Recover the amino acids of this structure.
């Protein structure tokens, strides 16, 4: 593993950039899963760290476009496995303990949490960053404490932040978390 991220040509999330080296090392060679990968901006950071990354999304067009336009001299495509997956309707395809880390940015679907815990290797990281609370986004965000209570039995949180959003009286929060799987 190269160990250091040199640049941010892909526009990766600051949270991903902050924890990428730690997550890559802890994955111990197991693949990293980028859930709802979009353009692959976060997957590319892990590919740069010599990790194998499984990129899943319902539509991989943005990622394929990103890869075909890659002119930076860095060739991440050999480290990326692209997989079309409808995360809402398709069955979860990943085996128990087979994934070294899961990155889930801007697509918060709590029904996937048990799948994440099932597929993560013991000690593997889960990094989640919800969408922001701008405009009406608060309607799609969880209630305060909801994500933490859903995950705390199977994860040790290295970072857990909630920020209240929405109009007065709303209990919606944005969430940023990095947790290490303690389930067996």
């Amino acid at each position: 593993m190269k160990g250091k991220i040199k640049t941010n040509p892909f526009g990766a999330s600051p949270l991903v950039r902050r924890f990428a080296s730690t997550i890559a090392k802890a994955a111990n060679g197991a693949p990293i899963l980028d859930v709802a990968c979009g353009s692959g901006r976060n997957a590319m950071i892990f590919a740069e760290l010599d990790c194998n990354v499984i990129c899943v999304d319902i539509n991989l067009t943005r990622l394929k476009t990103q890869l075909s336009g890659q002119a930076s001299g860095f060739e991440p495509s050999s480290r990326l496995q692209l997989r079309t997956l409808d995360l809402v309707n398709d069955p979860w395809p990943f085996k128990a303990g087979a994934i070294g880390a899961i990155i889930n940015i801007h697509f918060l679907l709590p029904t996937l949490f048990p799948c994440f815990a099932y597929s993560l290797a013991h000690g593997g990281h889960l990094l989640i960053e919800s969408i922001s609370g701008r405009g009406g986004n608060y309607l799609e965000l969880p209630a305060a404490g909801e994500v933490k209570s859903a995950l705390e039995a199977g994860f040790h949180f290295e970072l857990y932040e909630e920020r209240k959003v929405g109009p007065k009286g709303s209990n919606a929060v944005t969430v940023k978390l990095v947790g290490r799987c303690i389930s067996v």
